[in-house]
Amino acid sequence: MTFKCTSIVFVCIATICFFNYFPQFIYSDKEILINSSFNDGFSKWIPSKTGVEIHPAAKIDTTNLSNFVSPPETSVILSAPNFERAISLGQFIPPVTAGSLLHLSAYTKTIGITDGLRPWETARVILVGYDQFNKAMYNHPHLLVAQKGSSDWAYHERVFRIAENTAKLQLIIQLIHAKGQFFVKTLSLRPATPNPEFGRYRSWFIAIWTFLGLWVGLPLVHKAATRRPHALILLIALGILAGVLMPNSLKEYIGESILPSADAGAYIIHSDELSVFRLTFSIPELDKYKYGHFIMFGLLAATASNRGWFNLSTFKALVLTTLFAFATEVLQLFIPGRGPQLGDVLIDTAGIFTGWALSGFYRSSSINC
């Protein structure tokens, strides 16, 4: 079992390194945006009447370049003192062929951003398509980044696939009915094409994961077939896997069917063609899907520790459950539109230890009674 666990950890790390650092797309040198660096002011951009200003690049002291790394860049600032303003800066993009890929990237910074009441009332950068009736297609992936609070400069990138019936595109920087300051610089929008080498290596990783799943899973299925408690553990694990291997569009459709959002506009698909494992320890914003993960892994840990997990100690059961949570998060790299991140593993782990603690408390209470 130790060798199997070590193998799973090794394959997980190798998969993350592959997706995070091997080029998934080949980006064109052609910049689609005009005046993307704002060096010509608002030329080709459409700013709102108030709240948008250009922050020019600071002049460089050429007499002292000892600590010089890269030249400062011009940025745009959206500022709102209250929730009443809808501030934006946009640029329409020439027609792009449906199904083609575009790589959008930008650096952003926030100061004291407080969200409004609706999900889109925040600081964000979007690439939205319009149909032939000039209606914005927000039901298709369009979000590059949405931020609140205060944060230093950070790089964001995303690859979008242009939806069918897209007549035109618009890149928009928004601060809609939210207050604070939103800084954006180094915008770039370029055509992208899939890297064939990445596709070949990805197929090899799929084969490795398939072998690993059979190697680890078949003995567990055999034991579950002869022992009823283990069958329940396996059933919960398969339920988790079904949710993990579900494309993002299907996941959101089922989620909205079971638990509709209070705001109809909250049902917006934010899938990404670029698969990256986000190695940040910050806890992501909690929603019904995060709570679902927490509950399912809590049930798995409670069942495993309460009935024993294939004759392993409770400690080993917790380790294996946590490893399973990590592996399922890594597997999402292969699923279209999913966004695996270390924060989700932390949520799953919290569910595991909560389930284990509640199970232990229940057993102790039963013994005392």
Number of domains: 2
Strand content: 15-25%
Number of helices: 7
- Mean pLDDT equals 84
Strand count, sense and barrel status of the largest sheet are:
6 strands, antiparallel
Helix content: 25-40%
Give the SSE order as H and E letters: HEEEEEEEEEEEHHHHHH
Our Rg estimate from Cα atoms comes to: 24 Å
Give an overview of the whole structure.
- The chain is α+β, with helices and mostly antiparallel strands and 369 residues long.
- The protein has two domains: 196 residues, no CATH class; 156 residues, Jelly Rolls (Sandwich).
- 39% of the residues lie in helices and 24% in strands.
- It has seven helices and eleven strands.
- The strands form two sheets. Strands 1, 3, 4, 6, 9 and 11 form a six-stranded antiparallel β-sheet that branches. Strands 2-5-10-7-8 form a five-stranded antiparallel β-sheet, with no helix packed on it.
- α3 runs antiparallel to α5 and α6 runs antiparallel to α7.
- The longest helix has 31 residues.
- It is elongated.
- The two termini are 37 Å apart.
- About 5% of the residues have low confidence.
Brief sketch in words of this structure:
This protein has 369 residues and is α+β, with helices and mostly antiparallel strands.
Main attributes of the structure:
six-stranded antiparallel sheet, five-stranded antiparallel sheet, 2 domains, alpha+beta, 7 helices, 369 residues, Jelly Rolls
How are the secondary structure elements laid out?
Blueprint: H1 2-21, E1 25-27, E2 46-47, E3 52-55, E4 75-80, E5 86-93, E6 101-114, E7 123-130, E8 143-147, E9 149-161, E10 168-176, E11 179-194, H2 196-226, H3 228-244, H4 248-258, H5 288-307, H6 314-331, H7 342-368
Antiparallel strand pairs: 1-11, 2-5, 3-4, 4-11, 5-10, 6-9, 6-11, 7-8, 7-10
Helix pairs in contact: 1-2, 1-6, 2-3, 3-5, 5-6, 5-7, 6-7
